[in-house]
Amino acid sequence: MKHNIDWNDLRYLLLVARHGSVSAAARELGVNHTTVLRRINSFEEANKLRFFIKKSTGYKPTPEGLQLLEAACAVEEKINDLERKIKGAENEMSGQVRITAVDSLCHPLLLKHINSFTHSFPEIEVLFSATNQVLDLGNRDSDIAVRPGLDLPEHLHGYRVADMACHVYLHEALSEHDPDSLPWLGLDRPISTTYIGQQYEQMIQNKSVAFRANSFKALQMAAEQLAGCTLLPCFLGDTSDSLQRLPGSQYTFTTGLWVVSHKDLALSKPISRLMEHIHAGLQQDEDLFAGQRSRCF
């Protein structure tokens, strides 16, 4: 019997398998929970097999489902490779470009350069995603990423903007207190798993941690409300009206700031031009990222 498999059905199955959750897959796909369940049931009925078992820990593939997942992953990679090459062949300065950045860069330092680019190229629509999750550029979750990191993975093309320094800050009203007597603010996933996050978490393992967040913007706002000592990128902490650095070089951590894309996507004229524009713009504030200058906006 011939089976006509719809690639969109496979996408639904792959996402449920990766997340172990219908709800999480629905959120990523931008559809409701019922739609995902209907696509799974339809696929299973049409192909006379059971793809998932629902357990208390989530949806788990059956042995038959695992075999199909392996093949579906291979199909997905081929399709993604084709889409990247098609996107990379673009030469017209028009269409959509997706860019992602950590939420702390929802800031004039980055957004002013995206704004100036769209004014220069009004036929290009920039789709901006602020998230601390590392989006998969190979999977075309984004075309460009502005993100911290120690080095550039081999499959990516990009530019190192600057050193990105982070330091421990506290409200100026707490500056006379012994830091060990104050609450400390901790990091949550995913930023706690980064190089700087791991260094900071090791430093505060014996501190009294009162609050955790997965966002440096949230930590900045908490510290401005006298919540305690917290790690912040210097371009946030140094531009706050009420925060100051905790004295001591042991409270400084440094990584790199990058503008990157997948090597295939970087061949696209709109993507490469936006990357170059952001890189050149951000480099104007290289010393602020490196924690060597204070500046107010």
UniProtKB/TrEMBL annotation:
Record-linked Pfam families: HTH_1, LysR_substrate
Domain of life of the native organism: Bacteria
Molecular-function GO terms, alphabetical: DNA-binding transcription factor activity; sequence-specific DNA binding
Keywords for the protein's UniProt record, in alphabetical order: Coiled coil, DNA-binding, Transcription, Transcription regulation
Record carries keyword Transcription: yes
Coiled coil: 72-99
Location of the HTH lysR-type domain: 5-62
Family recorded in the similarity comment: Belongs to the LysR transcriptional regulatory family.
Descriptive protein name: Transcriptional regulator
The organism of origin for this protein: Gynuella sunshinyii YC6258
